[in-house]
Each structure stands twice: as structure tokens, then as C-alpha cells.
């Protein structure tokens, strides 16, 4: 067993850290306030290879492993979780899905552009009546010979108003339940495809979340991903990897808040000494450090499982469940350590606290992670 990072991993982590602390930090408060999508930064992240981290270089990707992906996600999320969710969705839900399940023609046409950041992708599973219960898909895709006719509504779609390529999950045969579901590639601007207004959110406000409407959209047959009826398996497998990315995002949010709290506690004085010398504050820091390190081990283990070709359904669920809990609890503590300054935007911790909440909700709520974990341990 080896807990140390390779020289290459350290280089990748440091490059992401440098980018986050110079480029992402600039304007992060304003982007959050105004709900500005960081289009210029997305372009720069594409140039750095962060949008196709694990994609084979023959499709324009960086050809790195999942450990590199979580290292990058942690560093970006310490500063700007709105930017990191764009990276996570593009890598885990869109690029991975296309590379693992797409045809050569689909990879050539879409993956090569998504992996370089020329295109941004979105993943559309959730519906007004199908969130946790993803099998209750109402969006339908009727086989019309050389195309499918797509109708329905998807909500909460990250990158919804900014994407070029949308992977849309739809019911093709409602009598077959989860075996009657398929995944399709829908392009921006296809006739009958409408993007609804942007959501006004509590956190990750710089990310772009929309409801999407599909009214008789003709999706060419060659845009179906995988075998007929394989869409639900595609979605679940893709989300399993996505959870590693979101776990790393939660870890980064927690670690970012901890680093700010530690620094502040060494500078701020009360009762004649730096507040870190008060045991109540020192113990908070000890708890944060310990829990964050434990979360990091779970995140790394899930990433390692994926890289080794092991099943990562449970390790990714555990990593997301735990890291998101740590993120929520310890961003609250980071605000507390900052006192009144924690309550204002300039000190960043209030934003991290708001951003932390989403990591317990998307790509499977914490309750759903517990269902995944418990089902697996009971059946063993
Ligand atoms: C900012 C944001 C971005 C998102 N991005 C995307 C995206 O890009 N693509 C996409 O497809 N979706 C996206 N989502 C949707 C997200 O994945 C869903 O919100 C999430 O899966 C929960 O579904 P729901 O909101 O319908 O809640 P519900 O499923 O209605 O759940 C409500 C509550 O009930 C609990 N619950 C439900 N079923 C059970 C059960 N069996 N046992 C115990 N508790 C249960 C849940 O845990 C939750 O606490 C996003 C959501 C948000 C807020």
C-alpha cells in the first residue's frame, strides 16, 4: 500500500492549485453575486486540459487517470465550486459516457470537441417527477424509423443554457421499465428544443442551471448512445463515476474553508491571544483536519478503484456521502471561526457554506447514497 502521490500527480495538483488561486479567485465573489457563468475561464480550463482529463489523447483528451481528476477537482473547488461543477459534468457525465458507450462516429463528432473545451456538455436525467426515482422518466423518444421523436421536460440541468451537446435520457418503451430507456445526443439549436429561464440558486451560483423543453425534436437514429434499452444502465454507470467528481468537489469545498479558517484563527486576536490558542477553536480545527483527511482517503480510494477497473459503485457512494457531510458541517464551523467576518462575502467562507449544500443533493442525494451502500452490503 502506498499513500504517496507520484511526481506527476503532484505536478498536476500544483498546476490546478496555481490556476485556481490566480485565475479562479479573481472575480469569484462577483460571479456568485451576479450568477455569472465563467465562460472565459471555461475556455482557459479547456486549454489546460481540465475538460477532458481522462479522455484518450486520440480524442483530444489529456489521458490522465481518475486520481488526477480528483486532485484537479479538489483544487478548483477550494476556490470556486461553480467552475468545478462545469468540469465535473463535462468530464464524468458527458465525456466518460461518450467514450465508454458511444460509437466511433459519435466520439469523432462530439467527444473530440468536448474533451478540448471547444464544446461544453450537459447531462439530462432529472425531470419534475423523476429526481431520486430516475426510472419514472416521462420524457419519451418514439422510434420513427431513421429518427426518434423526443418530447418532454428535463429540469435542474447544469450547463443547461451554455452547452453545445446534451445527453438526454428518455423512455422509448414504457412497458419495459428500466429496460425501455435510452440515452440520446441532442445538439444545441435542434428544432423544438427550448431552454427555460435560469434558476436563482442558494449556491454554485456561477453555474448555469435550467429547465429544458423538448417538443417534437427529431433526433437522428445515429445519436442514440449504446444498444437499444441500455440507457438506464448508461445513466447509472455514468453517475457512479460522477459521484467521485462531486465527492472531490465536496472535499475541496471543505478543505478550502478549513484553510481559510486556520489562517484567520492565527491572525485574529481575542482576550489577548490569537483565537487558535483558545482550545474551543483549536479543537474545531483538529476535527476539521481529521474529517477532511478521512474524506480525502475515501475519495482517493474511489478514484483508485475506478483506475484499477474495480467496481466503484459503493466506494463512490461512500466518498460522496461522507465528503458532502464533512463539507456541510465544516463550512458552518469555518463561518463560526470567522465570527462576524464569516457572515460577509469578502471572507469567502459564507459562499463555501452555501456551495457545500448542493453536494448532498445532486448526482444522488445522501439518502440515495445510503440506499446504494446498504443494498450492496446486505446482498454481500
Ligand atoms: C443545482 C442543481 C444542479 C443539478 N444538475 C443536474 C444535472 O445536470 N442533470 C440532472 O439530470 N439533474 C441535475 N440535478 C438534479 C438532482 O440530481 C436532483 O435534484 C436530485 O437527484 C434529487 O431529486 P429531486 O430534486 O427530485 O428530489 P426528490 O427525489 O423529490 O427527493 C426529495 C427528498 O426525498 C428523499 N428521498 C427520495 N426518495 C427516497 C427514498 N427512496 N428513500 C429515502 N429518501 C428519499 C431525497 O433524498 C430528498 O431528501 C441538479 C439539481 C440541482 C439543485
From TrEMBL:
Keywords: FAD, Flavoprotein, Oxidoreductase. Residues 229-377 form the Acyl-CoA dehydrogenase/oxidase C-terminal domain. Its cofactor is FAD. Gene3D superfamilies: Acyl-CoA dehydrogenase/oxidase, N-terminal domain, Butyryl-CoA Dehydrogenase, subunit A, domain 2, Butyryl-CoA Dehydrogenase, subunit A, domain 3. Residues 6-118 form the Acyl-CoA dehydrogenase/oxidase N-terminal domain. The keyword Flavoprotein applies. Residues 122-217 form the Acyl-CoA oxidase/dehydrogenase middle domain. PANTHER family: ACYL-COA DEHYDROGENASE, ISOVALERYL-COA DEHYDROGENASE, MITOCHONDRIAL-RELATED. Belongs to the acyl-CoA dehydrogenase family. This is Acyl-CoA dehydrogenase. It comes from Mariniflexile aquimaris.
Amino acid at each position: 500500500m502506498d499513500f504517496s502521490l507520484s511526481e506527476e500527480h503532484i505536478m498536476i495538483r500544483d498546476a490546478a492549485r496555481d490556476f485556481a488561486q490566480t485565475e479562479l479567485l479573481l472575480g469569484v465573489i462577483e460571479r456568485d453575486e451576479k450568477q455569472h457563468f465563467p465562460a472565459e475561464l471555461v475556455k482557459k480550463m479547456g486549454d489546460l486540459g481540465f475538460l477532458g482529463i481522462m479522455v484518450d489523447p486520440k480524442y483530444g483528451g489529456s489521458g490522465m487517470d481518475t486520481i488526477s481528476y480528483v486532485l484537479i477537482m479538489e483544487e478548483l473547488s477550494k476556490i470556486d465550486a461553480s467552475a468545478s461543477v462545469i468540469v465535473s459534468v463535462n468530464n464524468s457525465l458527458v465525456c466518460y459516457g461518450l467514450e465508454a458507450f458511444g460509437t466511433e462516429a459519435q466520439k469523432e463528432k462530439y467527444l473530440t470537441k468536448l474533451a478540448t473545451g471547444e464544446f461544453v456538455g450537459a447531462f439530462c436525467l432529472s425531470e419534475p417527477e423523476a429526481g431520486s426515482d430516475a426510472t419514472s422518466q416521462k420524457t419519451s423518444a418514439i422510434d420513427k424509423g431513421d429518427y426518434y421523436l423526443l418530447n418532454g421536460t428535463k429540469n435542474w440541468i447544469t450547463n443547461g443554457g451554455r452547452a453545445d451537446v446534451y445527453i438526454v435520457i428518455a423512455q422509448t418503451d414504457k412497458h419495459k421499465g428500466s429496460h425501455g430507456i435510452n440515452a440520446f445526443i441532442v445538439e444545441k439549436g435542434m428544432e423544438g428544443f427550448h431552454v427555460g429561464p435560469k434558476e436563482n440558486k442558494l449556491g454554485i451560483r456561477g453555474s448555469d442551471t435550467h429547465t429544458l423543453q423538448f417538443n417534437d425534436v427529431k433526433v437522428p437514429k445515429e445519436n442514440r448512445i449504446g444498444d437499444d434499452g441500455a440507457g438506464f444502465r448508461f445513466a447509472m454507470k455514468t453517475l457512479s463515476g460522477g459521484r467521485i467528481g462531486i465527492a472531490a468537489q465536496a472535499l475541496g469545498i471543505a478543505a478550502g474553508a478549513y484553510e481559510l479558517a486556520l489562517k484567520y484563527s492565527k491572525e485574529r486576536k481575542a482576550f489577548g491571544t490569537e483565537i487558535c490558542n483558545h482550545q474551543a477553536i483549536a479543537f474545531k480545527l483538529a476535527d476539521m483536519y481529521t474529517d477532511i483527511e478521512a474524506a480525502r482517503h475515501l475519495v482517493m480510494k474511489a478514484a483508485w478503484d475506478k483506475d484499477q477497473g474495480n467496481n466503484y459503485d459503493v466506494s463512490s457512494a461512500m466518498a460522496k456521502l461522507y465528503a458532502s457531510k464533512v463539507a456541510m458541517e465544516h463550512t458552518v464551523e469555518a463561518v463560526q471561526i470567522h465570527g462576524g467576518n464569516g457572515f460577509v462575502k469578502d471572507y469567502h467562507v459564507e459562499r463555501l457554506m452555501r456551495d457545500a449544500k448542493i453536494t448532498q443533493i445532486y448526482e444522488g442525494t445522501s439518502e440515495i447514497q445510503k440506499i446504494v451502500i446498504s443494498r450492496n452490503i446486505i446482498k454481500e
